[in-house]
Amino acid sequence: MCLAVPAQVVALLPDGMATVDVAGVKKDVSVALVDGLAVGDYVILHVGYALNRIDADEAARTLALLAEIGQLDEARQELLDGGAA
Length: 85
Known about the structure:
The protein has one domain: Roll (SH3 type barrels). Helices cover 27% and strands 38% of the residues. By secondary structure, it is α+β, with helices and mostly antiparallel strands. A five-stranded antiparallel beta sheet has the order 3-2-1-4-5, sandwiched between helices. Involved in the maturation of [NiFe] hydrogenases. Involved in the biosynthesis of the Fe(CN)(2)CO cofactor. One of its GO terms (biological process) is protein maturation.
């Protein structure tokens, strides 16, 4: 299953890219759809694209809910396997 998950921006890269962290897994993704991101911001990540910015509280709540229903590990594993979350 391919879920949109919260991810924290840990580095801004050239060409509309950034490194994000999803539950301890780091991945380079496109942030071209979201203007004005900074390191530390949270985004919703889906198939390798940051879709929009969310606040830290919303990210924490969403990650907790995903963990509660067992989907956070699945999203994390998909990233580890080379998927895009």
